Structures are given as structure tokens and as C-alpha cells.
User: Fold this.
Amino acid sequence: MACIDRRPRCGVATTPVIPEPLSKFIAAIGSIWGIITALLAIGKALGAVSVAGGVISIGGVTIGTAAAGGALAGAAAAVAMIVIIGLYALDRCVEGRGLAECIAGVVTGVVDSFDSALDELLPFTAMHDRVDVVVKSRYWDVVEDGQAFVFCTDHEPPKRSEIMRCYFFDRRVCDAATGAQIGGAVGAVAGVIAAAAIAAAIGCATIILCIFALILAALVAAAAVLAGALVGGQIGKATSTNDAPTSSGGGTIAVGQLVTVHGNMQRREHDSAANVMWWSHSAQFHGDSMSPQPFSYCDIDDELTMDGCPAPVVELR
Amino acid sequence: MARPFAALARWLAATLRPLGPCGQSGVIVGMLVGGLLVIHDVIEDGIELGPGDFIAYWIALGAFGWLVLIAIFTLFVRWPLGSIVVPTFVNAALVSGLTLAVVAAGHLYPVGFFVGLLVGLLVGALLCAIGRWLKGSDHGLY
Assistant:
């Protein structure tokens, strides 16, 4: 066992970590609600939107004010929700630019896609299969690159080790996201109609009743989109293939295996702004580790002296 | 269709990062509350809130904002309900009340969305700063 003097740089990234979904919600709500409310205000100022005798006229089309309000609030909520689902699908199913990297170590954990009840309820939020690797100390610079957040084991130093999360593409995740988008769109149509009907039923006899109707309309429309996304996402997932993370030899990756992973490294907000493989392109299997668990780099450095990553070329002078 | 929004989301994430999660929560509540005020004002052809109506209106909007934040943080961010129920209540109550007060006092209903965005940004950032001062940490909602 050969532990090194340098301590792993575990924990907090130097910049604040923002939960991944918040920026999606702000982008969707900000753009959709901003556009709709701006158009309404401008339309009213220009006379394209007018109200008289409990009836609103928008571009020549007349409708009861309560129903119109419900439809507008419902449409704003529904379209924003569809955009959010689309952003999730884009995030999960587009690899994006990163750094080609290679790490080696021992597999300390495997997390399947759709591993929680919330992933089943909101299929578009599911993540791809994840393999956690306790990396050799030689690859700590890769894990720490760019002052990223670093996941570590629970050992006391000097055995505390750095972990790299490696995601393996799973077709189920993207098929579920596609299904959720289609289902969400269908839900949106039904949701806006229901929103208008509910608001019309409650009516705008008083100011308080009217705002209550608008709030309920927005909530109903958003819920309808999510319900449609649930159904569509589950259909997409059920008709897809469950890809398990595998090595180049075809074997399924499991805890305790010594591996080399090549992939596209990115810093991702979903992982507390840590560097992760998104996605892993290939994995080499070097046998099972004989080291005691929980695994530490001190043992793995000795056990996996020759891995599959390119060795640095040392210039002799 | 989602790609322009993805670019907007990345820009917003980078720009609003210093606000922290509570600041961004305030922005979300402010935009929703302000947006509803615009829609209500348009369909009613002008709203005049009396003192008696203000409290009830504030409660309705505050409850809506609180519900939305709870849904976002439990279903999407996946933080425990117990850890966010009070901070989200404080955030939603302050942002909705202040947005309503500014919009009603200044008769700013047509631009209610932008008033809400600004109020949410300022109140959220203030709550984050107070939270950091109290706890000495950037983790959690405060």
C-alpha cells in the first residue's frame, strides 16, 4: 500500500453551485411569460386588445374575459412547462463539447437510470447509467481540473480518495424524454382548454375570485403537461432498450472491477459542478480488484500499475 | 425549438450564479406573480385594489409562488421538503407582497412582469446574503 503525501482536493467548488433545474425554469418562465405579457401590454396599448361588457377582443376574436384569462394563464404555464421538458431532453441527449480524457481505477458504485420513484414520475429528468470510479492518484489532476467540485470517499487521510463519475449513454433515457415531449404537447392542448373552462366556471365577479381563477388555470395547465409527459415518457421508456454500462469486451461493468474509462469530460451542474465523463465512450476491464473495501487509491495505485490510458512521454535530457 | 432556450438557460445560469439558489427562486416567483398581474389587468381592463383586497390578493399570489417553489425544489432539485418549506415561504411571501405593493402603488400593471423580476432579484439576493451571513455557507437555500 503506497499512499502519497498530497491530499485530495475534496468538496466545494470555488464558485457557487446552482441546482441544475433552476436555470431551466428561469429561462422558460422568463422567456415565455415575458413574451406573452409583453405582447398583451403592447396589444392593449395599441388597441388590438380591448375589453367591454365582460368580453375581451384580441385581434378581432372575442371571448369571455374569465375564459380568456384562464386560457392565457394556462397557455403561459403550459408552454413554459413544455420548454422545460425540452431543455431536459436537450441536456440529457446531446453530448456537447468537453475534453477528451482518460481515467483508471476501481469501480465503487453503479447507478442505473430510472433509479428513483421521481424518475418514473418525471421520466424526462432521468439520468443515464452512472459508474463511480475511485481513480488512481495519477488522475487526480483530471478530476480536479478547472477548480471543479470533487467527490471523495469517506476515508480519513491519507487513504481518502477521489471519485470520478462516468456516465454511460442509455437509450431508454432519451426515448423517455422524446415520449415526454410528445405527451407533454398533447397534455398542453387539453390543459389550456381545461384552464379556460375552469376560469370561466369560477368567473371574475370579484377581483379576488378572478385572480384565484387565473392561478388555478395556470396550475391545471402545468399539471396537464406533466401528466402527459408522464404517460408519454413511460411509453417511450417501455418501448426502448435498457443499455447497461459495458466494457469493450462486452461484459457488464460491476463494483470491484479495475477499469480504464475513455470519454468526454465536462463540468456539470447536476453533479454539483464536478468534472464527469459525459459520456464515457469506452471502458477496458483489467480484472477484479483484490483490495479491501471501501476502496482507496493507496491500494489501487499498486494494484493497477499498468492501465489503458496513454502514458506521458518523458523527455530525456 | 429548445436550442435557443438552452443557450438562454446557459447565459442565465452564468449571469445569475452570484445570486445563489434563493436569488433565483425570488426571480421565479417575481416573474410568475408579475405575469399574473399583467394578465389580470388586461382582462379586467384595469384593476384597482382596495385595502381590503390587498391582503387577500397577496395571500393568493404568495401561496401560488410558495407552491411553485416547493414543487421545483422537491420534484426537480430533489431537496428534502423539511429543508425548504420555511425558506421558500419567506421568499414567496416577501417577493409577492413587494411586487404587488410596487405595482399597485405605481399603477405599473402593464409592466408587472418586469417589476416582479426586479423585485424577485433584489429580495432573493438579499435573502441569500442574509443567509450566508447567518450560516457562513453557500450551501442550501439560505
Helices of chain B lie at 2-16, 20-44, 51-76, 81-106, 112-135. The longest helix of chain B spans residues 51-76. Chain B touches chain A through 55 residues (CB under 8 Å).
